[in-house]
Amino acid sequence: MDYAGEPIAWQRTADGEFPYRASHDGVDLRLRVNDFPAEPLYTLFVDYRPAFDLDDWPAPWLGPAPTADQLRAGSEARRSRGVVDAIVVADWAHRLCTAPPGPAGAVLEALGAGREVAATEQGGVVTSVRVPCRPPRADLEALLGPGLTAAPAAAPFVCEVVLGDGGLVLVRRAAEGRPTTPSSART
After folding, report:
1. Which of 34, 113, 137, 184 has the fewest Cβ atoms nearer than 10 Å?
2. How far, in Å, CA of 143 to CA of 88, rounded?
3. At a CB cut-off of 8 Å and minimum separation 6, what does 7 contact?
4. 131: which strand partners?
């Protein structure tokens, strides 16, 4: 099988030598990082046996989504240069899921957002944040997936990115079965 030509969704592992794994048609796939540039960048292992080497990430492969820590680090670096792009928006979407229910000032502070954004709240809970930029959809999808949604595990909220003509809106809604009211957030 031509694994390099297949759309394979990769996940991160905690193994530094084999940082990515996937399952494709019932076959266990792992990528080993080699001693680059002396060796090819990766070796693909199929069912724990080396199959072939790769110098680049194949275009059909879907890389794992960045972690919240990676988004935060990238976002802070860009914001320090005055840039608000897809990485910053994806970071804000993740932070919005875990930010306190309200008031708006506390939520914006938790995002690390400045005056460029505005929050809307309802009943003491921030329901949306308007951002005046609009990064390309493809850039946002690469970070948040095709649904443009952030939903970190155990976060009280889910955040969806809605693209508009003049910018975008981060819409926050309660995650099913998780408390979101200001009083329950303190417990």
Report:
1. 184
2. 10
3. 60, 61, 62
4. 168
pLDDT surpassing 70 at residue 182: no
Residues 6+ apart with CB under 8 A from 109: none
Handedness of CA 85, 165, 64, 147 (dihedral sign): positive
Look at strands 168-174 and 157-163 and give their pairing.
antiparallel
Q: What are phi and psi of 118, to 5 degrees?
A: -135, 135
Helix axes 86-98, 104-111, angle to 10 degrees: 130
Residue matched to tokens 């897809």? 86
Cis peptide before 103 (omega within 30 of 0): yes
- The token duo for 117 is 């954004």
b/e per residue, 125-148, with b = 16+ CB within 10 A? bbbbbbbeebbeeeebebbbeeeb
Q: At what angle do helices 86-98 and 68-80 cross, to 10 degrees?
A: 130
The structure tokens listed for 99 are 């930010």
Is the whole model's pTM more than 0.85, yes or no? Answer: no
- Tens of pLDDT along 101-151? 778 888 888 888 877 789 998 888 889 999 988 999 988 988 888 889 998
pLDDT for res 163: 94
Compute the distance between CA of residue 125 and CA of residue 106 in angstroms, rounded to an integer. 11
Under a CB-based contact definition with an 8 Å cutoff, are residues 175 and 151 in contact?
Answer: yes
- Token code pair at residue 162: 């809605």
